[in-house]
């Protein structure tokens, strides 16, 4: 889980049923973390991503807001800002403790067809997700994954982590892609070889109804407890996109706005460079973290697929191939 990285908390708020299938997920870093982002695909929906560019002033963020609702769902970040401001957490802009501006980059996914028109996250979703934030959180049809879909199947929230030497790398993904995450002729996830998922992969095709997939977008966060610059953190986000591409086919299409944030909490220093290509150099250590970021994001994608339950008229993997869970 991404919360295996110390200092990272996750909270969800969603509405499912009675014309709703959408929600918001917040990744909180109350002590702050160096932030970065990598965005791919032709249909992004984002907020406060320019400030994450390495040359810009603000170095640390307080939270990342992931939400359904397409561009409407960006309003959920207002609630995250209010929750943080009430606790004096943010970028100081005055002499008093409460004079702060919370730094909350955000991204949204397209799930509007799964709810009745007008039912989408607002600021109250972001605030409620912060209230629910903890080190333990649910996967599947929750938060930003409530209305998610991946190809022909229901998507959802997935998470994974990995220890690399003395560092921990964790990922959270809201799986909502135009591409398929599964070989529909066999039922095997494309990223099945990236870990143990507690299922027995089936070997039969499924007869699934065609689903219109004009607009989608997978969004997520990778966190690491290393001390990184903004430029180094961006390399982590870039690598995580490779994990996304391993998990869905095709990835980063014109109809996806795939966006991955990186958070570096700074608890552990990377080794100083001792030579241009030596094994103990900082670039080599960063490269090992990047490789892990790709792996954990791919695993998080599979976990989101497997944990999802049917909602909004989209069948879940567990309903199409129930034998995998026997």
What does the model show?
Strands 1, 2, 3, 4, 7, 10, 11, 14 and 15 form a nine-stranded mixed β-sheet that branches. By secondary structure, the chain is an alpha+beta fold. Strand 5 and strand 6 form a beta hairpin. The chain has a single domain, classed as 4-Layer Sandwich (L-amino peptidase D-ALA esterase/amidase), CATH 3.60.70. The chain has helices at residues 76-85, 123-131, 230-247, 282-307, 317-320; strands spanning 9-17, 20-39, 46-47, 60-67, 91-92, 100-101, 106-108, 149-150, 153-154, 157-164, 167-174, 182-183, 188-189, 219-227, 259-269. It starts with 8 loop residues before the first strand and ends in a 6-residue tail after the last helix.
The residue fraction in helices comes out at 10-25%
Name the CATH architecture.
Answer: 4-Layer Sandwich
Please name the fourth-level CATH homologous superfamily. Answer: L-amino peptidase D-ALA esterase/amidase
- How much of the residues is beta strand, in percent? 25-35%
Give me the strand/helix succession. EEEEHEEEHEEEEEEEHEHH
Q: What is the top-level CATH class?
A: Alpha Beta
The class by helix and strand makeup works out as alpha+beta
Number of helices: 5
The largest β sheet comes out as: 9 strands, mixed
Based on Cα principal axes, name the global outline: globular
Q: What is the tally of beta strands? A: 15
Mean pLDDT across all amino acids: 94
The CATH topology, please?
L-amino peptidase D-ALA esterase/amidase
For the termini, the CA-CA separation is 24 Å
Counting structural domains, the number is 1
Radius of gyration equals 19 Å
| Low-confidence residue ranges | none
